[in-house]
C-alpha cells in the first residue's frame, strides 16, 4: 500500500493475494487467495494492519469474466462469485459474523442468476439478472419474492441512485431510478 508522502509499505498478509477489491471505506480490501486448493477471501484493514479470513470454499475460484467480489455500500457484506466444476454460484458474506449464504436462496427464478449488484439506495437489497430480466431482491428475507424491474435487459450497472441498462437490440442505454 502506498500512501501520499510516505514510503511504500509492505503488508505481509497480502503476499498470496491474487486479486484485491477495495471497499467503499478507503482502509478495507477484500483479498482473493488460493491456498492449498482452497479459495479464500480475507479482509485486510490497512489502518489497523489486521487481516481476517471471512470465507473459504474448496476447489473453487473467481470467474474469469467481469464478475468480481462486490462490497455492499455500507461495508457490511460481500457478494462473492465462484466457479467450481464449471458451475457458477454466488455467496453473500456478512462480515460481522462471517456467515455465508448462497445467493440463490433469495432468487427463486427459473433462469440462472447472473451479475448481482448491491442496491445503492436500500440496505440489504440486490439487483440481478435472470435470463434477460432484471430483478431486485431482499437478502434479509428469503421468503420475499424478488421484484420485477425490467425485461429485455442484456447488461446493466448502478451509479449513484440510478440503474443504467442496455435493452435487447435497441442500442439505447436507459436510465431508471434504483429505488
Report on this structure.
It is a single chain. This protein is an all-beta fold. Helices cover about 0% and strands about 50% of the residues. The chain is built from no helices and 15 strands. The strands form four sheets. Strands 1-2-3-4 form a four-stranded antiparallel sheet, with no helix packed on it. A four-stranded antiparallel sheet has the order 5-6-7-8, with no helix packed on it. A four-stranded antiparallel sheet has the order 9-10-11-12, with no helix packed on it. The protein is globular and about 50 Å long. The mean pLDDT is about 85.
What's the pLDDT, averaged over the residues?
A: 87
Major sheet, described briefly?
4 strands, antiparallel
Total beta-strand segments? 15
Helix content: under 10%
* Number of continuous helical runs: 0
Choose one word for the global shape.
globular
The topology string of helices and strands comes to EEEEEEEEEEEEEEE
Subunit organisation of the chains:
single chain
User: What percent of residues are in strands?
Assistant: over 45%
Instruction: Going across the biggest sheet, name each strand in turn.
Output: 1-2-3-4
Radius of gyration: 17 Å
Would you tell me the structural class of the helices and strands? mainly beta
Low-confidence stretches: none
Brief characterization of the structure:
This protein has 179 residues and is an all-beta fold.
Amino acid at each position: 500500500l502506498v500512501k501520499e508522502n510516505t514510503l511504500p509499505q509492505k503488508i505481509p498478509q497480502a503476499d498470496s493475494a491474487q486479486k484485491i477489491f477495495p471497499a467503499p471505506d478507503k482502509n478495507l480490501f477484500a483479498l482473493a487467495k488460493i491456498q492449498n486448493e482452497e479459495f479464500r477471501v480475507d479482509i485486510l484493514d490497512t489502518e489497523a494492519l489486521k487481516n481476517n479470513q471471512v470465507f473459504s470454499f474448496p476447489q473453487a475460484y473467481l470467474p474469469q469474466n467481469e464478475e468480481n467480489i462486490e462490497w455492499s455500500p455500507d461495508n457490511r457484506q460481500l457478494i462473492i462469485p465462484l466457479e467450481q466444476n464449471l458451475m457458477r454460484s454466488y455467496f453473500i458474506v456478512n462480515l460481522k459474523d462471517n456467515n455465508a449464504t448462497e445467493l440463490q436462496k433469495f432468487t427463486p427464478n427459473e433462469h440462472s442468476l447472473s451479475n448481482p449488484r448491491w442496491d445503492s439506495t436500500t440496505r440489504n437489497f440486490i439487483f440481478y439478472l435472470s435470463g434477460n430480466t432484471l430483478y431486485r431482491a431482499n437478502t434479509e428475507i428469503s421468503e420475499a419474492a424478488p421484484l420485477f424491474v425490467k425485461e429485455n435487459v442484456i447488461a446493466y450497472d448502478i451509479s449513484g441512485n440510478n440503474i443504467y441498462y442496455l435493452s435487447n437490440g435497441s442500442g439505447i442505454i436507459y436510465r431508471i431510478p434504483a429505488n
